[in-house]
Amino acid sequence: MTDIIVRPLAQSDHADWQRLWTAYLTFYETKLPQEVYAVTWKRLFTAGEFEPKGFIATLDGKAVGLTHYLYHRSCWSEKNNCYLQDLFADPDMRGKGVGAALIEAVKQEAGKIGVKNVYWMTHETNATARKLYDYVARRTGFIEYDLL
């Protein structure tokens, strides 16, 4: 097996991105209209400090993982925070370093602009991912609430 390559998303990645993001949404038992796919893809390539960005991971030339992340202001720091919004590795690639490589890429990219706080959420039942997260990051103890 060769090394996992993580790089920013490119326009030519659209089909792989759509396949991986659909699999991610399916994992979370979620479906989104095609309009959301279209606007998300457009936003990933829209310049702007707070627009989402993305990385894709490849192994032997095949797309095997993706992440989306975005920066936002904080009242606790002069620098922005980085929210790692979506992280997905093909199921047959789990445990092989894809997720860790994607997290590290976001951390490195955020560090280039002085952002030190990279954070994310996962569902409490996502045991496979939580093993990785417990290894690469600290658990903050915060509990999420939302108003839907």
Task: Give the SSE order as H and E letters.
Answer: EHHEEEHEH
DSSP strand (E) fraction? 15-25%
The description of the largest β-sheet is: 5 strands, mixed
Number of strands: 5
How many helices? The count is: 4
Spans where pLDDT lies below 50 across 5 or more residues:
none
Q: Mind telling me the CATH class?
A: Alpha Beta
CA gyration radius, whole angstroms: 15 Å
CATH fourth-tier homologous superfamily: Gcn5-related N-acetyltransferase (GNAT)
Number of domains: 1
Classify the fold: give the CATH topology: Aminopeptidase
The CATH architecture can be given as: 3-Layer(aba) Sandwich
Tell me the helix content.
25-40%
Describe this protein's structure:
The protein has one domain (5-136): Aminopeptidase (3-Layer(aba) Sandwich). The protein has 4 helices and 5 strands, in the order βααβββαβα. It is 34% helix and 22% strand. The mean pLDDT is 94. With 148 residues, the protein is of the alpha+beta class. The termini are far apart. A 5-stranded mixed beta sheet has the order 1-2-3-4-5, sandwiched between helices.
